[in-house]
């Protein structure tokens, strides 16, 4: 189990051993678990709702959908995550006038997660017309991604010159990882839909309904 995933489990454990020793009935245990769950969710909503506008409107972030879409969903994702790969087609299907998806890359799923995200950000910044070809190739390549695979994708898309030259992470990627830590994103994919955190793979109908439910005056 990845360290951050393990910490996530610890963060949301509803009961301590002290609580167990004090509780007299199963009903008390259930009530305490629910209380802790609701407190955790309220804290998470508070963190999500206080994000500055630039988190949603940073020109250096990779976006699926038009710049002037009505709503913005933050997607914490990773090229090495199999569930992110499954969700990606849903995001591309739903991206349009109603919603845009801002990709906040995480680096928790393998040694090449950071390298692939860094490369993708370089392509987005310097050769945007090639971005979707690179993105889809990275999402469809064998898992786990190897540097050899990434270099081959770069050759085939004429973006080899945009491969990272060193291991230093760009500020945009560092900011995405830090935001994930602040919002307690311990696994990918996770989405911030309004002030609601949605984790794991969801189908197009479920995600579309969640987007439709949230008020228009939020980011």
Q: Structural class of the helix and strand makeup?
A: alpha+beta
Q: Let me know the largest β-sheet.
A: 5 strands, mixed
Query: What is the C-alpha radius of gyration, as a whole number of Å?
Result: 19 Å
Percent of residues in helices comes to 40-55%
What's the number of extended β-strand segments? 5
Determine the number of helices (DSSP H or I, runs of at least 4 residues).
10
Describe this structure in words.
By secondary structure, this protein is of the alpha+beta class. It has 10 helices and 5 strands. The chain has helices at residues 3-12, 17-22, 26-49, 53-56, 82-94, 113-126, 131-140, 147-156, 171-182, 204-213, and strands spanning 62-64, 71-77, 99-105, 190-193, 196-199. A 5-stranded mixed beta sheet has the order 1-3-2-4-5, sandwiched between helices. Strand 4 (190-193) and strand 5 (196-199) form a beta hairpin. Helix 6 runs antiparallel to helix 7. The chain starts with a helix and ends in a 6-residue tail after the last helix.
Write the layout of secondary structure elements.
Elements: H1 3-12, H2 17-22, H3 26-49, H4 53-56, E1 62-64, E2 71-77, H5 82-94, E3 99-105, H6 113-126, H7 131-140, H8 147-156, H9 171-182, E4 190-193, E5 196-199, H10 204-213
Parallel strand pairs: 2-3
Antiparallel strand pairs: 1-3, 2-4, 4-5
Helix pairs in contact: 6-7
Keywords for this structure?
219 residues; 5 strands; 11% strand; single chain; disordered N terminus; alpha+beta; five-stranded mixed sheet; 10 helices
Short description:
By secondary structure, this protein is an alpha+beta fold. It has 10 helices and 5 strands.
């Amino acid at each position: 189990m990845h360290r951050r995933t393990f910490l996530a489990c610890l963060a949301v454990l509803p009961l301590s051993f002290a609580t167990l020793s004090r509780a007299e009935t199963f009903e008390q245990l259930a009530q305490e678990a629910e209380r802790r769950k609701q407190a955790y969710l309220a804290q998470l909503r508070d963190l999500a709702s206080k994000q500055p506008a630039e988190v949603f409107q940073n020109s250096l972030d990779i976006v699926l959908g038009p710049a002037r879409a009505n709503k913005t969903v933050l997607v914490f994702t990773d090229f090495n995550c199999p569930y992110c790969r499954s969700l990606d087609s849903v995001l591309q299907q739903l991206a349009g006038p109603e919603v845009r998806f801002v990709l906040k890359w995480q680096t928790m799923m393998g040694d090449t997660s950071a390298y692939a995200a860094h490369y993708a950000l370089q392509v987005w910044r310097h050769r945007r017309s090639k971005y979707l070809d690179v993105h889809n190739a990275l999402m469809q390549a064998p898992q786990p991604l190897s540097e050899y695979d990434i270099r081959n994708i770069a050759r085939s898309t004429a973006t080899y010159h945009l491969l990272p030259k060193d291991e230093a992470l760009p500020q945009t990627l560092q900011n995405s990882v830090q935001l994930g830590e602040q919002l307690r994103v311990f696994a990918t994919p996770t989405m911030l839909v309004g002030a609601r955190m949605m984790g794991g793979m969801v189908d197009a109908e479920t995600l579309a309904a969640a987007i439709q439910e949230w008020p228009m005056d939020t980011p």
